[in-house]
Design a protein that fits this description.
- The structure holds 2 protein chains of 2 kinds.
- By secondary structure, chain A is of the alpha/beta class.
- Chain A contains 15 helices and 15 strands.
- Chain A has 3 domains: 241 residues, Rossmann fold; 125 residues, Rossmann fold (3-Layer(aba) Sandwich), CATH 3.40.50; 34 residues, no CATH class.
- In chain A, 42% of the residues lie in helices and 17% in strands.
- Chain B is of the alpha/beta class.
- Helices cover 42% and strands 18% of the residues of chain B.
- In chain B, α1 packs across α5 and α4 packs antiparallel against α5.
- Chain B is globular and about 45 Å long.
- The termini of chain B are far apart.
- The mean pLDDT of chain B is 93.
- Classes of the chains: A alpha/beta, B alpha/beta.
Chain lengths: 414, 199
């Protein structure tokens, strides 16, 4: 049914239709609306699930691990510092091979404290062994959750569905919310590969020494390779069942004949496509490659989409001391040396505007884009602080110095 | 695409108003997108929200920087210069106030726009009368419908009734209707005035 619906609400309705048996959550902006909505459904008996209000994110993931090991379909959601706080358990969930589904409402990581969107949180768990699927729209966020449970349970690995905090979680958009019967037909009952069952006791989580640790890790690697196929098949089945394209590994847009292809993840893709349409009107051959599955990284699909083209990777996170995080994977996926530029954009909620994208892409087409660019960087502001740091040993805290330069004592609201 | 920016203060229902407008447009089978200015909302702090309406699917996720219309829920924000940023000369503005633009110190500013596109409506007092609380959002949307015809009053009322129930729905709907009538009459008066001036 078509609805005008907040992204968080759409996700909550999708998760509810997946019939999770255990939902554990600790509130953190901008994820809160999702679990709030789910808790209300449980309270009103619309959803038959155990809802656990836990005391921290570490507990949230630990409860999800326990529930999943006991054979329950388990779900949680978090963001930012919350994801970091549960990090040890995040790795455990993957190491144990438990098919937990978690929404990450992407948000920056402090310090400085910042509640706004970027991808630093999910990227920090890049190698934890979870699948990471990135949603472009509220509709896709909704759809990806339905696919995520099926993918997770098919492979017995946990899946993170990443959706841009505020930009998608707090936006009201049109979404087609499926019927319960459709979801039931798509998502079979959870049949765990391993389960704590008093009738057939096993232990899960044993210590493994050098004799088999590499092999356990190899199997995790192998499952991720299998995931590439399962993600593709699941998206195809989803299309057959629900009649729309959602999920999959990558999504090219006008990339076939493009001289330059921009690689990006998440909600930026929409703004980017608008900018590309505009520039194509002016005769510039630019295309887009959306990466839906960041983990596993679909190296073959990326390579196929980018032969011989100049590549711009638009990143909403930064690896200090290295540069672009997605860029490294894109570069590794390509057989031949190609011209790749990294553009860091939208950190801590800075808007990625069509105007800035247009200017950046025009520069790229003219061959004027350097290997690493910070979109809309206020260089004068940075330079003032660099001068201060050179002038005096005790130059003070940089973040506060910058705010003072801008004439504000705290971050602007609105 | 028709783009609207709402300015108000935390607690005034700025985000709800944008969502109601999106919901009204959705009822007319149009694509709509509403979102807040992504801040930590606090009671009384200046907040913004945005709404886009189009016949095509809306792909962009950038803030509205060149609005076709502004809805100002709190006139105490009017001294902020950036409030009007990006509003074109053909733009619309609806201000929640019982006082006219001259009294608000915006006479000269308003002269730069189409006279019948910049209006005030006493939305808070209409809300007090009909809802019993000074929450101007629904009333302003009623007024907005009469000002721009971007959505119909019926769609606004339907969106209100979907969102609220009981006396809150009825009060908001009555305030929206009253504001619609107020703005419609104001525009009519302005048109007659202009016709006379032309003659």
């Amino acid at each position: 049914m078509l609805k005008q619906i907040e992204g968080s609400r759409a996700v909550a309705e999708a998760v509810a239709m997946c019939r999770p048996q255990v939902i554990c959550a600790y509130p953190i902006t901008p994820q809160t609306h999702i679990v709030e909505a789910l808790s209300a459904m449980v309270k009103k008996d619309e959803l038959a699930a155990e809802f656990l209000n836990v005391e921290s994110e570490f507990a949230a993931m630990s409860v999800a691990i326990g529930a999943s090991a006991a054979g329950a379909r388990a779900y949680t959601a978090t963001a930012s510092q919350g994801l970091l706080y549960m990090s040890e358990a995040v790795w455990n969930a993957a190491g144990l091979g438990l098919p937990i589904v978690m929404t990450v409402a992407n948000r920056a990581i402090g310090a400085p404290i910042n509640i706004w969107n970027d991808h630093s949180d999910a990227m920090s768990q890049r190698d934890a062994g979870w699948l990471q699927l990135y949603a472009e729209t509220s509709q896709e966020a909704l759809d990806l959750h339905i696919q995520a449970f099926r993918i997770a349970e098919e492979l017995s690995v946990p899946v993170m569905v990443c959706m841009d905090g505020f930009l998608l979680t707090h936006a009201s958009e049109r979404a087609d919310v499926p019927e319960q019967a459709q979801v039931d037909a798509f998502l079979p009952r959870y049949e765990p590969r391993q389960v704590l069952d008093p009738a057939a006791p096993v232990s899960i989580g044993a210590m493994v020494g050098p004799e088999a640790f590499t092999e356990v890790r190899y199997l995790a690697y192998e499952r991720m390779r299998q995931a590439l196929g399962v993600i593709t098949e699941t998206a195809a089945d989803f299309r057959a069942q629900f009649g729309r394209d959602s999920g999959g590994l990558v999504r090219p847009y006008l990339a076939e004949d493009a001289d330059i292809v921009v690689v990006a993840l998440g909600s930026t893709l929409g703004t980017l496509k608008d900018a590309v349409d505009e520039l194509r009107g002016g005769g510039m051959k630019i295309g887009v490659l959306g990466i839906t599955s960041f983990r596993p990284f679909p190296a073959d699909a990326v390579r196929e989409a980018l032969p011989g083209r100049r590549v711009v990777v638009l990143e909403r996170a930064l690896a200090p001391g290295a540069g672009g995080i997605v860029t490294a994977d894109v570069r590794a996926a390509l057989n031949q040396p190609q011209d790749i530029a990294t553009v860091i954009a939208g950190l801590g909620g800075r808007a990625i505007t069509r105007k800035s994208l247009r200017a950046m892409l025009t520069a790229a087409a003219a061959g004027e884009l350097g290997p690493l660019t910070f979109l809309d960087l206020d260089t004068a502001l940075v330079d003032r602080e660099l001068v201060r740091m050179r002038a005096a040993r005790r130059s003070g805290p940089s973040a506060e110095n910058l705010l003072r330069d801008l004439g504000i004592t705290a971050s602007r609201i609105g | 695409m028709f783009q609207v920016r709402f300015h108000g203060r935390g607690g005034q229902g700025v985000v709800t108003a944008a969502e109601l407008l999106a919901s009204a447009a959705f009822r007319e089978d149009r694509h709509a997108q509403a979102f807040p200015s992504f801040g930590s909302e606090r009671m009384g702090a200046p907040v913004m929200s945005f709404c886009r309406i189009d016949d095509q699917p809306i792909r962009t996720h950038e803030p509205v920087t060149e609005p076709d219309a502004l809805i100002i829920q709190d006139p105490t924000l009017l001294h902020q210069a950036e409030l009007f940023q990006g509003l074109g000369r053909d733009g619309y503005m609806l201000v929640n106030s019982a006082r006219g633009f001259a009294e608000l110190g915006l006479g000269e500013f308003a002269d730069g726009f189409h006279r019948d596109r910049l209006l005030v409506v006493p939305a808070s007092s209409l809300a007090m009368t009909h809802l019993g609380r000074p929450l101007p959002g629904a009333a302003l949307l009623g007024g907005f419908a009469a000002l721009t015809w971007a959505v119909s009053l019926d769609s606004v009322l339907a969106a209100i009734n979907e969102r609220f129930t009981g006396p809150v729905a009825a009060g908001n709907a009555a305030a929206a209707r009253a504001a619609f009538d107020f703005v419609r009459d104001e525009r009519k008066a302005l048109t007659i005035e202009e016709a006379r001036a032309d003659a």
